[in-house]
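Supplementary Methods S3. Complex input for the zinc ion-bound model.
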Amino acid sequence: MRWSGNLMREINGDGFRRWYERQLIGGFSFIALGLLLIVAGAAFLEVWLGHESATVDLLSAGLAFVSLGSGGYCWVKAAETIGAAEHLAQQAVCASCKAYGRITCQSERHERGSLTLFVQCIRCNHPWSLTL
Ligand SMILES: [Zn+2]
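Predicted complex, serialized as structure tokens:
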């Protein structure tokens, strides 16, 4: 995952809520970019199917594949980014004082594809962990 090693610094830098907002903005930007690329890919596909000449066919086929592939990748990245942010946000409520997103990360542990963040409530100092 792209924020391995940076997640703790990112959350502690601006706070969890700002981090979460940035993830959502990034995720929805990927959705918008993916949509544009898929529309462009469909346009290139239409030019390709028009059979103007061998050169235009080859060029538009290549551009169609690149655009559609990149658009699909953007949507996968969007789902991954938004999904991870939502998953962490659901765990970011303090069990002791019910404060949402008022956390500082104390440490993180990576093992076999999962990430555990050990956090502490800013308001009441209650410790717990978030897993991704
Ligand atoms: Zn608390």
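The two ends are 10 Å apart (CA to CA). The helical segments are 7-14, 16-49, 54-91.
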